[in-house]
Amino acid sequence: MESSFVLPLGLNKAEAYARFLNDYTAFITGETDIVAALANTSAALHEAFGFFWVGFYIVASDEWLSLGPFQGSVACTRIRRGRGVCGTAWAKGRTLVVPDVDAFPGHIACSSASRSEIVVPLRDARGEIHGVLDIDSDRLAAFDDDDQRGLEAVVEVLCSTLWQ
Ligand code: SME
Q: What is the pTM of this model?
């Protein structure tokens, strides 16, 4: 198997996500192993968009998220429900876009270079949350509505292949 997620130059964000989603859907559909799917999703997003840190935190118990597959520097291994951007997105059950992590109360700094962040919950067909996709940038306000829409669409494909 050989797959490349490198995007052609000159696409705007919406075009880049549309192109990514098309290739990613063909690539990931049918994968039912959670670690394999999360690992390749992190790698594909990193290759396509060059994110500073991209990966997953997985629901490990009623109270805790555990670090899952990712691309980037070593990161915090446990995040409590309701804490940090990841734990808050999990508790609230919705995507959080944080333009300036220093202005987010309780932000958990795994890397001092991280300046902005987006977190998207992973939900099965019944609405149960199994984890979150977490992406950090070393630039302020790196994520906008195009990123939210694009990444929510990627997560929807991922969740429907893992949990129908
Ligand atoms: N900043 C996150 C912690 C995870 S790292 O960004 C990889 C948070 O506040 O939940």
A: 0.97
